[in-house]
Amino acid sequence: MDKQAVFAQVANLEERIGELYGELGSLKKKIMELLEENSKLQIENENLRNRLERQTHKQGDVSVPLGEGFDALARLYHEGFHVCNVHYGSMRTEGDCLFCLSFLHKS
Ligand SMILES: [Zn+2]
């Protein structure tokens, strides 16, 4: 057995694993960005839908009941994303967010 060759092979493998690890890291970052972008768009969409709903119900000054939009935001929060203005659309990494909770409770 050529020990030199085996060592070279292991070193080569180590290098490739290092590269793969780096690639995995950047993919993970990209997925994170996409998820956050997606949640931001969802929030935006719900806000626009709510505004539209409120506008169509404007006549008579009836207070508009909380619609589907609100449910969607609550769901998004429970999926682990911020829906508050402070951290807007980013992933919740530290448990509950007081800004989100107060936003969801007053909406
Ligand atoms: Zn929040």
From TrEMBL:
Taxonomic lineage of the native organism: Bacteria, Bacillati, Bacillota, Bacilli, Bacillales
UniProt source species? Effusibacillus consociatus
Q: Is this entry keyworded Zinc?
A: yes
Q: Does the keyword Metal-binding apply?
A: yes
Q: Which residues form a coiled coil?
A: 10-58
From which domain of life does this come? Bacteria
For this protein, the record's Pfam families field holds: YabA
| Cellular compartment(s) | Cytoplasm, Nucleoid
Instruction: Supply the name of the protein.
Output: Replication initiation control protein YabA
The record's comment on cofactor binding reads:
Binds 1 zinc ion per subunit.
